[in-house]
Amino acid sequence: MAAESGKATNCLRGMHRHFVNDPEAVRRVLVQTQAWMVAVGVPSPLRGQAEMVLAEVLNNIVEHAYDGGSGPIDLRLRPCSGGLICLVSDQGLPMPGSALPSGDCPSVETSLQDLPEGGFGWYLIRLLARDLRYRRFAGRNRLGFVLEADNGG
Amino acid sequence: MDLLAEPGAEALVIRVNAARIDAAVAINFKERMRDLLADSTPRVILDLSQVEFLDSSGLGAVVAVMKMLGPERALELAALTPTVERVFRLTRMDRVFTLHADAPARPRLSNGG
User: Which of A1-29 are b and which e, b meaning 16 or more Cβ less than 10 Å from the residue's Cβ?
Assistant: First the structure.
């Protein structure tokens, strides 16, 4: 039985998932998103790029938004002009400072024992997504962005 | 997290028989690797040929595993698939690890006699 719900009638080619903030649900939704992207003809490099960005965005919500508690995450994707328009929302805490992190890449020019084990998420998001917009409205965080194949490395 | 250790004269090869090293399994991956690294072979090669996806949690877990080995031992990565390679390259972690294009050959089965 699927733990995630989606409205098939929302949009003929869009994808909508509503799911709980845990890593296993995120993984299921990312796998479902891959299948949907294949079905609507999203080319392979963009599919990999999309999965990277979505994983980081969703993992951030799982780690931080609900302060250790449980809560919903809403994901909507729509193909547009060779790219993907994405909207992720949650009902958790506001982003600190009501703004998105700058996403500087942690330095790897360190000794081995000082190498960073985290802090890469927002760097990857900002590198690979464009038109990143955050809005807090009616108790919800809404993050919109666009994914196109020629972004990033 | 399904990991298969192949001790060898030149290196300890660890095959990651999982499609994803992500937030859902990062902690489990580190714990399993810690058990396998009790072997003191100086050179450890992680075969990532089955891993189709790795997020920043997975990257952090691989870094943590390298730190477990300490300065006298080396963690090398083999057969990175495109998305995984991209994560290492974009974060510049491809400069930190020795990367091999191909996974080490599997040990041949001996037919006895």
Answer: eeeeebeeeeeeebbbbebebebebbbbb
